[in-house]
Write a structure and sequence with these properties.
Length: 172
Amino acid sequence: MPFYSFSANYLKVVYGDYKTVVKETGEDIKEHPLKTGIYLSILSVVGYLWKNNPSERSFRVELLEHMNDLLLVGDLIRNPRSDSHMQRLMWCYNNGQMRRMNLGVCSFMWQDNFPEEVDLFEAQCKPIMVGWLEFKDRILDIGVAGRWLWLNEAMIDYDINSDEWPDESEKP
């Protein structure tokens, strides 16, 4: 019997604690509605970003779709900026050097030195791996809210070759 009475008393104390927390939280909500609204807004935005954080698979699908769109455009009218960006991404993808860093609310696609399956000393040695100072130069794309920002930005006017049209400021 002592175990049951101990468990019952423990559960009563825990129930009382939670009841007090809920009561005080309700009072705080009534006393500080602006603060509550801000906290709930921040929590909602973080929850939305967490739920809609793009995956590595979505990046690869979007990369292949954009690459197909780019290949449908002739070489002479293809935007060289879009083409070079997509060529770099495809090179990293085909060589297995593309990695994803998931931060919960956003993701980074970045270029590693070696493919995952390489077991060379250089690939395993911590001091010569990609460091934090070098990491910013290795970022290929940033994924937020279900979109890959730089991938979509590179495809703006992908079918307009800026070298084909002379700049208006160069006219006499």
